Amino acid sequence: MSDLIINVPHLQTFQQRFGAFVVTVTCWLLWLYFLVPIVTLSGWLMGLRQLAKEIRWFGGYKSLMELMELYGEAVLVIVALWLCWTLLTSLRRSPPGQQPPPVGKAELCQAYAVAPADLDRCQNAQRITVHFDDHGHIVQMESAAAADEPAGAAVAPGA
Fold first, then answer.
1. pLDDT (0 to 100) of residue 145
2. Which of 123, 104, 127, 119 has its CA nearest to residue 156?
3. Contact, 37 vs 51, CB < 8 A?
4. Transmembrane segments in this chain: where (predicted)?
């Protein structure tokens, strides 16, 4: 993974990491489970003898096609649940009038331990690269391509 992308999994809680692991493993197992009949049917169509036995074990071609219909229905149910989840999530967001007030520059400087002049310079830059330490704190900011600034100017926080 690129060093320019924030990747600090050690800052996540145990529940977040464990939840992500369980969801990932479940999705991969579900994906493999759905692929078995397709691989079997493809092998049978290509004339692989061992997979022909599998087709017979599944109860023949028609039984396998019924199983694939069932899988298709399961996929449709999953898509419907996902769409409902997405719709509910978008409805649960607060309306635009109830959003929290915007954060001021002084609060940003205090929260990230950055000098106000450095924050102004980085906000006016067209491109900025922020480097973090292992604890998620800003150690260096590089801004570039502003009209009045030389490319690659590096700014250490609080400097």
1. 61
2. 119
3. no
4. 20-46, 67-88
